[in-house]
Design goal:
Shape of chain B: elongated
Structural class of chain A: alpha/beta
Radius of gyration of chain B: 29 Å
Oligomer: heterodimer
CATH superfamily of chain A: P-loop containing nucleotide triphosphate hydrolases
CATH topology of chain A: Rossmann fold
CATH class of chain A: Alpha Beta
Number of domains of chain B: 2
Structural class of chain B: alpha+beta
Strand order of the largest sheet of chain A: 6-7-8-3-9-10
Order of helices and strands of chain A: EEEHEEHEHHHEHEEE
Distance between the termini of chain A: 19 Å
Largest sheet of chain B: 6 strands, mixed, barrel
Helix content of chain A: 25-40%
Largest sheet of chain A: 6 strands, mixed
Order of helices and strands of chain B: HHEEEEHEEHEEEEHEEEHHHHH
Largest interface: A-B, 35 and 26 residues
Number of strands of chain A: 10
Strand order of the largest sheet of chain B: 3-4-10-6-8-7
Helix content of chain B: 40-55%
Number of domains of chain A: 1
Bound molecules: adenosine-5'-triphosphate, magnesium ion
Number of helices of chain A: 6
Strand content of chain B: 15-25%
Number of strands of chain B: 13
């Protein structure tokens, strides 16, 4: 059973002559415990795909089904709470609140989402797995790029979402770190039963993926 | 509140500077308001202490006590009860050996009328006869003492201070209460003159005859030399200070919001409700104002303690409360401008930029 499914999705930016068809007739699905890569050249529509799958914006036409519910007609408020509860984002940069310590990043989630977050033990274990237990008192600007990335992963997992969406998560990492993050994502997908969608240019991640999609001029085709 | 406090804690310098500005402005607002109220009350203290509601003046006096003369004919039919009193006023310079000269207002009053009877003495007794006078207690601060013999406008005759009275100021000058006979002499009036004015505590009092005309006391106060102009000037300055604080708060929060636009988009993408983000900005604004105002109030308290009594400032609770509320309102209005931008944040901007 698919956790996330896109049916005949189209996205058109702008109007008239300035019109850009960023997504054309996209059909896509991902199941829990699956790690899916979305690859393709710049301007192909990868980020647009991610914003629509993550309910950050609405498609021009078509359906986005998350947990068996069609969210393409949801109000802003409902989409907001869907993101809070079911979707974790791991973004390239600035994805941590700069004036909160690592610990407070999790407290913020507790403030707005009272239930179903990771327990204290689960969080400690996750921090351990990510190797960031010692960093909880630090501010983001006191961390390296790789450390920030791992904190962002913990932050995204903390609300216990069904789906993880990542945009270029390895852009600022060296090869060794890329391998580590690849393994970590694979492990999260299998052990925590998440559906993980990763937009990337990075061929080094290919070996960890269950499925690979290629995007080109707004169209999507399955490679693996 | 959580986000608001954490951000202030992390950005101490930025927020410290804005608190400094709010503190300086509120201090200035408190000082100016106290000065305005202090000066206004020195204009009207005596009138307030009499609880005067109406005043009868010569209708050609331009509602000015010093220009008003009422003749015996004008007052032929007047009705003087326990709520009415004659007054005769003249500007004088008080002089005494080894004491500084003081510009004052001499008020001739009658012993059987309420102003004489109602004097609030802080020392001594009420004056009797032609040469005994009671004076405003501010003269005591200037070194005058009971029993001092003084001259008025360089008069040969000496008058003796037998009492000090509280709240006896009119038009920022201390009052010397004395006899009508002394007033006649100092003012050099013709024998047919009866008084300068009649003051009444009765709001319905009315006596219009020949040149005598009754005015509400508020009309009289607003015509006191400089009174209205002074109040308007202060009002304008205080108003401007409120507007300036509004602009500072609004601009500051707006710039901060603009700087963290991407960050706000990320938080919205993560599903943090916009009401949490709006709440953070509003509570920041309130925290900044409250901290700034509290520091200003503490400094006011210190100022009030060290300021010499001669400075005409009245530090009233009303001013402090009104000023604080005014600043809070400015803070809340000021935070509305960044709120608009926060509500318009597009969470999709969090990705792909
Ligand atoms: N907000 C927008 N308004 C108008 N056009 C847009 C907008 N966002 C993206 N586009 C256009 O849609 C197309 C797809 O953009 P998108 O950002 O999804 O590409 P991408 O595959 O993520 O590229 P990159 O690898 O460079 O990040 C591009 O032609 C882009 O110019
Ligand atoms: Mg992109």
């Amino acid at each position: 059973m698919a956790v996330i499914e896109l049916k005949d999705v189209e996205k058109i930016y702008g109007k008239g002559d300035a019109q850009v068809e960023a997504l054309k007739d996209i059909n896509f699905e991902a199941d829990k415990s699956e790690l899916v890569l979305i690859m393709g050249p710049s301007g192909a529509g990868k980020s647009t795909f991610l914003t629509i799958a993550g309910s950050l914006q609405k498609p021009t036409s078509g359906q986005v089904i998350i947990n068996r519910e069609d969210i393409s007609k949801f109000s802003d408020k409902k989409r907001n709470s869907l993101r809070l509860n079911e979707i974790g984002f791991i973004l390239q940069a600035y994805n941590l609140v700069p004036y909160l310590t690592v610990h407070d990043q999790f407290v913020l989630v507790d403030k707005v989402k009272k239930e179903d977050n990771l327990s204290k033990e689960d969080l400690d274990k996750l921090l351990e797995d990510l190797g960031i237990t010692k960093l909880v008192k630090k501010y983001p600007n006191e961390l390296s790029g790789g450390q920030q990335q791992r904190v962002a992963i913990a932050r995204a997992l903390y609300a216990n979402p069904a789906i993880l969406l990542a945009d270029e998560p390895t852009a600022s990492l060296d090869t060794q770190n890329v391998e580590e993050v690849g393994k970590l994502f694979k492990k999260l997908a299998k052990e925590r039963e998440k559906a993980i969608l990763i937009v990337t240019h990075d061929p080094r991640l290919e070996k960890y993926a269950d499925h690979i999609y290629e995007m080109m001029d707004g169209k999507m085709s399955q490679k693996k | 509140m959580f986000l608001a406090l954490k951000e202030i804690k992390h950005e101490k310098l930025r927020y410290g500077l804005i608190i400094l500005m709010i503190f300086l402005i509120s201090y200035l607002i408190f000082m100016l308001s106290s000065l305005a109220v202090g000066l206004a009350s020195e204009n009207t203290q005596a009138i307030d202490s009499w609880s005067a509601k109406k005043i009868v003046l010569n209708k050609n006096s331009n509602i000015s006590l010093s220009q008003s003369i009422l003749t015996k004919k004008d007052l032929k039919d007047d009705d003087i009860g326990k709520n009415e009193a004659y007054i005769g006023q003249v500007a004088v310079v008080v002089k005494s050996k080894n004491r500084p000269s003081v510009s004052a207002q001499f008020l001739g009053i009658k012993k059987d009328q309420f102003i004489y009877k109602d004097q609030v003495l802080v020392a001594g007794k009420r004056g009797k006869g032609k040469t005994e006078i009671t004076v405003d207690s501010s003269l005591r601060d200037k070194g005058y003492r009971l029993g001092d013999k003084i001259s008025l406008n360089g008069s040969a005759r000496k008058y003796k201070i037998v009492g000090f009275v509280n709240n006896a100021k009119i038009n920022i000058a201390p009052i010397i209460y004395g006899s009508f006979a002394t007033w006649r002499k100092l003012r050099m009036v013709a024998p047919n003159v009866a008084a300068a004015a009649i003051v009444s505590k009765n709001a319905n009092y009315k006596y219009n005859y020949k040149d005598a005309k009754t005015y509400p006391i508020a009309t009289f106060i607003n015509k006191l030399p400089g009174y209205t102009a002074q109040n308007m000037t202060f009002g304008l300055m205080i108003g401007f200070l409120f507007v300036i604080s509004l602009i500072i708060i609004a601009v500051f929060l707006y710039i901060l919001t603009m700087q963290k636009m991407h960050n706000l988009a990320v938080m919205r993408a993560q599903g943090i409700p916009s009401k949490t983000l709006v709440g953070a900005t509003v509570s920041q604004s309130i925290i900044l104002v409250v901290v700034g105002v509290i520091i200003a109030l503490i400094l006011m308290w210190v100022t009030a303690a060290v300021l010499p009594a001669a400075v005409p400032m009245s530090f009233t609770t009303t001013i402090m409360i009104a000023g604080t509320l005014g600043m809070l309102v400015m803070g809340i209005i000021g935070s509305l401008i960044p709120i608009r931008s926060i509500l318009k944040v597009d969470p999709a901007k969090a990705i792909g930029e």
